[in-house]
């Protein structure tokens, strides 16, 4: 009985410490994300960068949130549909178009926007891509790599459907260098029914508020576990006292 009680106390204490550690980890992540969010706001207030500045800085820091103004021309590369995306409670694709800046520079991946799936998954939706040289302005982003699933898994065809936005693999697939980022332009693109494509913006996988909320949950669970442990300990001690004086 003694060993079982000691083991129960040790397990409870270990779980309590683990929950507290998770809570502080989420607090730390929340503070980090809060700093990133402030950086994103500052970047949005800055003047647009040139394409050369973007290329130079792309190897030195994350460029998500910076503004870019650039003149682009369409290429013969098929439109790209990134699978398994959601926007405003709808499932669909993020559509991209590969654009040329100049002959001797890497091409640029331009996000056209979100388009819902069609009734038949085998049929990809239709949209109206850029067909002429355009002057585009917008914000850029670099997607974080998912270590569990990051391969391109491109399906042959025009348009081309992919499962992950792996720009390095995509550049090999189209056999041409690509800048390691995406431009989300302010210019509106339309589908075949002349409906504007959505412009989802989620530069960070989780906001600081989400992390702080998770921290509260872990601390709450730790508090509940501590209360239950103390209650069980008090009840057990009370029973022993009654038995000893009974």
Tell me what the structure shows.
With 246 residues, the protein is α+β, with helices and mostly antiparallel strands. The chain has four helices and nine strands; from the N terminus they run H-H-E-E-E-E-E-E-E-H-E-E-H. The strands form two sheets. A five-stranded mixed β-barrel has the order 1-3-4-8-6. A hairpin with a 6-residue loop joins strand 3 (90-100) and strand 4. Helix 1 (2-44) packs antiparallel against helix 4. The chain is elongated, with a radius of gyration of 26 Å. The two termini are 20 Å apart. The relative contact order is 0.18. The model has no long low-confidence stretch (mean pLDDT 88).
Mean pLDDT metric: 88
Bin the helical content: 25-40%
Strand % is: 15-25%
Q: Reading side by side through the largest sheet, how are the strands ordered?
A: 1-3-4-8-6
Quaternary structure annotation: single chain
Helix count, DSSP H or I runs of 4 or more residues:
4
Estimate the global geometry from the Cα principal axes: elongated
């Amino acid at each position: 009985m003694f060993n079982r009680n000691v083991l129960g106390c040790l397990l409870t204490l270990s779980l309590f410490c683990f929950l507290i550690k998770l809570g502080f980890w989420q607090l730390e992540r929340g503070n980090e994300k809060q700093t990133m969010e402030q950086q994103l706001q500052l970047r949005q207030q800055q003047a647009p960068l040139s394409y050369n500045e973007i290329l130079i800085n792309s190897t030195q820091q994350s460029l998500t949130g910076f503004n870019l103004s650039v003149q682009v021309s369409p290429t013969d590369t098929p439109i790209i549909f990134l699978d398994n995306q959601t926007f405003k409670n709808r499932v669909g694709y993020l559509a991209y178009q590969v654009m040329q800046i100049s002959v001797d520079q890497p091409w640029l991946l331009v996000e056209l926007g979100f388009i819902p799936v069609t009734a038949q998954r085998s049929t990809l939706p239709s949209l109206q891509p850029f067909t002429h040289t355009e002057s585009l302005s917008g914000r850029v982003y670099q997607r974080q790599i998912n270590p569990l699933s990051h391969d391109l898994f491109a399906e042959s065809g025009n348009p081309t459907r992919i499962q992950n936005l792996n720009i390095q693999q995509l550049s090999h697939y189209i056999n041409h260098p690509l800048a390691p980022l995406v431009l989300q332009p302010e210019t509106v693109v339309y589908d075949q029914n002349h409906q504007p494509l959505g412009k989802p913006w989620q530069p960070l996988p989780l906001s600081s508020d989400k992390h702080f909320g998770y921290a509260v949950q872990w601390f709450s669970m730790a508090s509940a576990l501590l209360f239950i442990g103390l209650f069980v300990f008090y009840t057990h001690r009370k029973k022993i006292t009654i038995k000893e004086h009974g």
